[in-house]
Design a protein that fits this description.
Blueprint: H1 3-21, H2 28-37, H3 44-55, H4 60-81, E1 91-92, E2 95-96, H5 98-102, H6 104-124, H7 132-146, H8 151-160, H9 168-178, H10 180-193, H11 198-222, H12 235-261, H13 267-274
Antiparallel strand pairs: 1-2
Length: 282
């Protein structure tokens, strides 16, 4: 099985488990939660977590609950980001956003439900090989990335910054929290669950941070400077297309170098980074 097939197999495993977690309740609330979560998506963050954990020797069954929790958190954030009070987007993945399909009140509750379900899933997950401390560390890593110092702080920055009034430092800080924090945590949590050594944890964090910024830069290039962000802040507006491309290539080079220096031999992590480059197909 080549690397693309292995990554696709991981995606299918995540998809199947998400379907299981969201089944069994036919209420309108769960219908909205399923609509928001199961309607597509590349599952980039959970695949990163699985690839990272397996690179350091953790079994799939240990990692999968945490991978799904990360994806539930990500999809909650999309539901809330699309709301009129936030990014005000009517479409998500080619179909009406959750609030357009179910109304704003139910969309808010669906997002809340996905977030709290994520932590319920992690709380029920068994400790890796009896190592309770690994579970605790991974739990904290994910919670911090999703919380008021990470993703939520980034979203607040996005709605509070004056349009056109931010510089490169503000952009990097905002995107490092709003987009990058959960991506970095996905890589780091996988390594923590596997009991990676200090060198490996450093490599995972540096790789995750570089890939997180690359993900945003790639998206801004694909959107050609068009953004629904309340702040109007995007890489192409700040740096131009060529400047954004150069920064993207630098991020991917830093991601590869982090793996090399950390002696992390993972074809899957290399491939996931390469997919974010021009023509990478991510």
């Amino acid at each position: 099985m080549d690397v693309r097939d292995r990554l696709e197999e991981k995606r299918r495993a995540v998809e199947s488990e998400l379907e299981r977690l969201l089944a069994g309740d036919d209420s309108r609330l769960f219908e909205a939660m399923r609509y928001a979560t199961l309607g597509g998506g590349k599952r980039f963050r959970p695949i990163l977590l699985l690839a990272s954990g397996e690179a350091f020797g953790a079994p799939r069954e240990t990692l999968l609950p945490y991978a799904c929790a990360v994806e539930l958190i990500h999809n909650y954030s999309l539901v809330h980001d699309d709301l009129p009070a936030m990014d005000n987007d009517d479409l998500r993945r080619g179909k009406p956003a959750c609030h357009k399909a179910f109304g704003e009140g139910l969309a808010l509750l669906a997002g809340d439900g996905l977030l709290t379900l994520a932590f319920e899933v992690v709380s029920r997950a068994p400790s890796p090989s009896g190592h309770e401390e690994r579970k605790d560390l991974a739990f904290r890593e994910i919670a911090a990335a999703a919380g008021v110092g990470g993703m939520i702080k980034g979203q607040w920055m996005d709605i509070s910054l004056s349009p056109g009034g931010a510089d490169e430092g503000a952009f990097l800080d905002l995107m490092g929290k709003k987009t990058g924090a959960l991506i970095r945590a996905s890589v780091t949590a996988g390594a923590l669950l596997a009991g990676a050594p200090a060198r490996g944890l450093t490599a995972a964090g540096e790789y995750g941070a570089a890939v997180g910024l690359a993900f945003q830069l790639r998206d801004d290039l694909a959107d050609a400077g068009r953004t629904g962000s309340p702040s109007g802040l995007d890489a192409v507006t700040l740096f131009g297309r060529e400047g954004t491309r150069a920064r993207l290539e630098d991020c991917l080079a830093r991601a590869r170098e982090a793996l090399r220096l950390g002696n992390v031999d993972s074809e899957e992590l290399r491939r996931l980074a390469d997919q974010l480059g021009p023509g990478g197909g991510a």
